Amino acid sequence: MAKNLYIAATAKDVGKSTVSFALLNYLITRNKKVSFMKPVGQRWLDSPWGKVEEDVILMKKVFQFQEAATEMNPVVIRRGFTEEYLSSEKKTDLSTTISDAYCKVSQDKDYVIIEGTGHAGVGSVIDQSNADVASLLDAKVVLLAKGGIGSTIDELELNYKFFKSKNADVIGIILNKVLLSKKEKVERAIKSYCKSRNLELFGLIPFSPTLRNPTLGQIIEELKPTIIKETDERNLVVDDFLVVASTVNEFVNYFKSIKGNQLLIMPTTRMDITFSIPLLKSVMDMADKRVFTILFSGLRPPSQTIIKSLEGEHINILWRKGDTFTLISKLAQISIKTRSENSSKIDEIKHLVNDNINFDSLFSTL
Length: 366
Fold this sequence. Notes:
Number of domains: 2
Oligomer: single chain
Structural class: alpha/beta
Number of strands: 15
Shape: globular
CATH superfamily of the largest domain: P-loop containing nucleotide triphosphate hydrolases
Radius of gyration: 23 Å
CATH class of the largest domain: Alpha Beta
Largest sheet: 6 strands, parallel
Strand content: 15-25%
Number of helices: 17
Helix content: 40-55%
CATH architecture of the largest domain: 3-Layer(aba) Sandwich
């Protein structure tokens, strides 16, 4: 029988798919027969296999799993699904749907990596919380949390107790997005918490801008802006966002201190800043920095004068109708997901995560 490992989290966007990917990669490179499953999915995409969870699409494409995508993701929460489930007098037996799919996915496998959705209680509305599903599939649970101390331990305790209430076996913890400057302090506190709950600390993964930030393609997909000019670099990760609300001199001086691919956000009325961008190369070394994309806000798109001033620059030019604050808020809400075409993110996962999880300890616990 396959050994089941359930990757759960204390909240959404903590890094479940990142850790699941790293675990699958580790096992496959060691010639283990392994498969992946996301029993309940909320973020589905159209794919060659139909409408399935985007994490399943990633794993299936990268690792070339032969199992049917609909078995790897048997329950897809589409629009109206929850309301229909609650109002139905005779509810669909989702537990059987998940169990049947698991039987097919796990056949002849050494391990099945099972990825949860959101925090422990997500799915309760359809009687399939993460804790319910982990218990149903007799999977050992690893809780993933964001690096920190106070709020991190509070969230770990809440989720740990919910899993225990459903008789799901939580074996340990992994912290993600840990700031290197606080790593020692965080590690001491979390080890103390783990000892009090008889849990293992399997790893502390450092914070990574590459994994945290979206690609240009994800920004375009989520915001649906008007594309005025595109450089065919949708898979490039945006290193940082710069909201331009300063004088030209302040903008230039600040730009000297930053590095990487910068996405500038500003209203179309800031022609002074726009006209200064082509001059940056003449006042500073641009070897380690670049204005990668300009995302304009405002009631009207940028004028032809603005567009012409940037004609010779290798810059993506986008416009999203509305005020700058709303645009920034929408950017902050983007759920960052790794796609199969995001080679830089996949390389980062393989190296950064692999170097910071104690795989031997984790799998020996199973």
